[in-house]
Write a structure and sequence with these properties.
alpha/beta; 6-stranded parallel beta sheet; 46% helix
């Protein structure tokens, strides 16, 4: 085999963050009776949350904000979109969201099947994720993915974030892998693909949404099952 070690991203690649976040926010919208506070349009509430979350994660990756600010501010800014300046509600939403989200189990199609296939083929399977340590491990356990991964490297545990080189070197060191025998598999061109390329690691762009590719990855797939064509 050309590759011995496969490094997967988690959110948006295997674990459907958008679908799981939507289900969690929907539950909170009901449980906290957010309609009574002026949030009548749940779809808009969810859409705005995703926009703020993505922007704040970019700021977090670049070192402009800390973890706690990210967690609170994404809720605070979403509430402000509805003219609700309630810091206590933002904190309550943040805490409950982080409690409930990791228990969600919506995966992208063929996730379990492809991991079983790769495991049976003899690959060493690992995870490199920018998520928080406790949250990511809880997600893996809840949806039954934890058994597949030999090493789980989070940004929190490694003190580095994709696309920084340090997290990739740390992951390969933990796995006992060389760059020549390693392959990164993820959905984000900026975070996963360019990050891996910058350390000389081959990459698979899981391009679910048909996003533009300013950089040509080693491989591009539109569904996880397509990994079988070259692994």
């Amino acid at each position: 085999m050309q590759y011995k070690h496969l490094f997967f991203d988690l959110d948006h690649t295997l674990w459907d963050f958008d679908a799981n976040a939507r289900a969690t926010l929907k539950q909170l919208h009901i449980d906290l009776n957010l309609v009574s506070k002026g949030i009548h349009d749940f779809d808009l509430f969810h859409k705005n949350y995703l926009v703020h979350n993505e922007k704040l994660w970019a700021r977090y990756r670049n070192g402009y904000i800390k973890q706690e600010e990210l967690r609170i501010k994404r809720m605070w800014l979403t509430l402000l979109d509805f003219k609700i300046a309630d810091e206590d509600l933002a904190r309550q939403l943040s805490e409950l969201f982080l409690q409930l989200l990791p228990s969600r189990t919506i995966l992208f199609p063929d996730t379990i099947e492809i991991l079983q296939y790769l495991e049976e083929k003899g690959y060493q399977i690992h995870l490199i994720t920018n998520g928080f340590d406790k949250v990511q491990h809880s997600k893996l356990k809840s949806c039954g993915l934890d058994r597949f991964f030999r090493e789980v490297v989070t940004s929190e545990s490694s003190n580095s974030l994709k696309p920084q080189k340090e997290i990739y070197f740390h992951a390969m060191e933990r796995a006992g892998a060389s760059v020549e025998e390693s392959l990164m598999i993820g959905d984000s061109m900026e975070v996963d693909i360019l990050g891996a390329a910058n350390v000389g690691m081959d990459q698979v762009h899981v391009n679910y949404n048909g996003q533009s590719q300013p950089f040509q990855p080693t491989y591009t797939i539109t569904a996880l099952k397509e990994l079988k064509t070259f692994l």
